Amino acid sequence: MEKKKIERINELARKKKAVGLTEAETAEQAELRREYLAEYRENMKAMLDNLVIQEQDGTRHALKQKDNPPVQ
């Protein structure tokens, strides 16, 4: 996510604490947070997809995906 967008998320959070947000700002904040979380989840999934477990005997295997559906 672009640094400007993260700064805007933080700016809106500070403003919300100080004086409150307008409806448009609340909608913007929700959209930015949704976008941030989507990117975070994508990065976490990529990290886990590339994770390799090494057992004590030296064998290595990829991390397996759980059967449970992802929680959103």
Please tell me about this protein's structure.
The protein has 72 residues and is mainly alpha-helical. It has one domain (3-62): Orthogonal Bundle (Helix Hairpins), CATH 1.10.287.540. It contains two helices and two strands. It has helices spanning 3-18, 23-49; strands at residues 52-54, 60-62. It has a two-stranded antiparallel sheet. The model has no long low-confidence stretch (mean pLDDT 92).
Would you kindly provide a brief summary of this structure?
With 72 residues, the chain is mainly alpha-helical.
Any key phrases for this structure?
two-stranded antiparallel sheet; 60% helix; 2 helices; mainly alpha; DUF896 domain-containing protein; 72 residues; Helix Hairpins
List the helices and strands and how they pair.
Layout: H1 3-18, H2 23-49, E1 52-54, E2 60-62
Helix pairs in contact: 1-2
Shape: elongated
Named CATH architecture: Orthogonal Bundle
The biggest beta sheet reads: 2 strands, antiparallel
The tally of helices reads 2
Uncertain ranges: none
Strands in their spatial order, largest beta sheet: 1-2
